[in-house]
Specification:
single chain, 277 residues, mainly alpha, 11 helices, 70% helix, globular
Length: 277
C-alpha cells in the first residue's frame, strides 16, 4: 500500500513539476485532465476487476488532451497543427488496435494480478496518466507557444514520424494476422518486420516520438527544452520498463531452449531493425 502510494505521488509530482517549469497555465490543466480521466476510469475498472478498456481510455485521453490544448491555445501555428494532427492519428490508430486485440484475447495478461489489488491497479491507471501527459510533452509546448514558419528540422522530424508510424502500424498488423491463424497458436512470429527486429513496433513508436521532438526543436528555448524528455521517456519505458523486458521474459518462458527460438534470438536485433542475415 505504501509503495503504491509513493509511486502515485511521484508520478503526479513529476507531471506537476514539469507543468510548473513550463509556465503552468495550460500545462496544469493538461495534468488535471490526464490524471483525472484515469482516476475516474479506475473506479468502474476495479469494481468490475477488468482491464478491457484500459488502453482505450488511454488513447481517448490523448484525443481529449490534444483537443483541450488546441482549444485553450490563443493561436495554433502550422507546426502546432501538424503535431496535433499527428498525435491524433497515432492515438486513434493505436487505441483501436489495442481495443480490438484485448477484445479478441478476452484479457490483457499484464493485469492478471494487478486488477485484484486496488493499490496496484490504481498505480497502473496513475502511470497511464503520466504517460498521456509526458509522452506528447513536445506537442504541448509547441501548442502553448505558437511560432510560425517551417524549416529543415520540421521536414526531418515529420519524415521521421512518418517512418516510425508506418513501421509501428505495419508491424502490429503483421502480428495480428499471424496470431489470427490457429496454426500459429504455439509459435512465435519471425516474418515481415519481425525478421528485422524482435520488437519492431516499439522501434517505430520510439522513432515517431523522436520525430515529434525534432519538429518541436525548431522553436524550443529555455525551460522548453524539457520537451525532449518526451522521446527519452518513451525509450526508457519501452526498452527498460513495461515493454521489451516483459515480452522477452514471456517469450523466454514459453519458447526458451527451443532451437528455432534460440536461433531467432541470436540473429535478430532486440529493438533497432536491420535486414535479416
Amino acid at each position: 500500500m505504501a509503495r503504491a502510494a509513493a509511486v502515485a505521488v511521484v508520478a503526479v509530482g513529476l507531471a506537476l513539476g514539469l507543468a510548473w517549469a513550463l509556465g503552468g497555465g495550460l500545462f496544469y490543466g493538461l495534468v488535471a485532465v490526464a490524471f483525472g480521466v484515469q482516476w475516474l476510469a479506475f473506479v468502474p475498472a476495479y469494481t468490475l476487476r477488468t482491464e478491457r478498456f484500459y488502453d482505450l481510455v488511454g488513447s481517448l485521453t490523448y484525443v481529449l488532451l490534444v483537443t483541450t490544448a488546441v482549444l485553450a491555445s490563443p493561436e495554433v501555428s502550422l507546426r502546432g497543427g501538424l503535431l496535433a494532427g499527428a498525435t491524433l492519428v497515432w492515438a486513434v490508430r493505436l487505441g483501436l488496435f489495442l481495443a480490438v486485440r484485448v477484445h479478441r484475447a478476452g484479457k490483457d495478461g499484464r493485469f492478471d494480478e494487478l486488477k485484484h489489488s486496488a493499490p496496484r491497479f490504481f498505480v497502473a491507471w496513475t502511470l497511464q496518466g503520466l504517460w498521456t501527459f509526458l509522452t506528447p510533452l513536445a506537442v504541448w509546448v509547441v501548442l502553448a507557444d505558437a511560432q510560425h514558419g517551417l524549416g529543415v528540422l520540421d521536414v526531418l522530424g515529420l519524415g521521421t514520424w512518418l517512418v516510425g508510424f508506418v513501421l509501428e502500424a505495419s508491424a502490429d498488423a503483421q502480428k495480428s494476422r499471424f496470431r489470427a491463424d490457429p496454426a500459429h497458436a504455439d509459435t512465435f512470429i519471425r516474418d515481415g518486420w519481425w525478421a528485422w527486429s524482435r520488437h519492431p513496433n516499439y522501434a517505430g513508436e520510439i522513432a515517431l516520438w523522436c520525430g515529434v521532438a525534432l519538429v518541436a526543436a525548431s522553436q524550443l528555448h529555455g525551460a522548453q527544452w524539457l520537451a525532449l524528455l518526451s522521446p527519452t521517456f518513451v525509450f526508457v519505458l519501452l526498452r527498460y520498463g513495461s515493454g521489451v523486458p516483459l515480452l522477452e521474459a514471456r517469450a523466454d518462458a514459453k519458447w526458451g531452449g527451443e532451437p528455432d527460438y534460440e536461433e531467432y534470438k541470436a540473429h535478430t536485433p532486440l529493438l533497432w531493425p536491420r535486414p535479416p542475415r
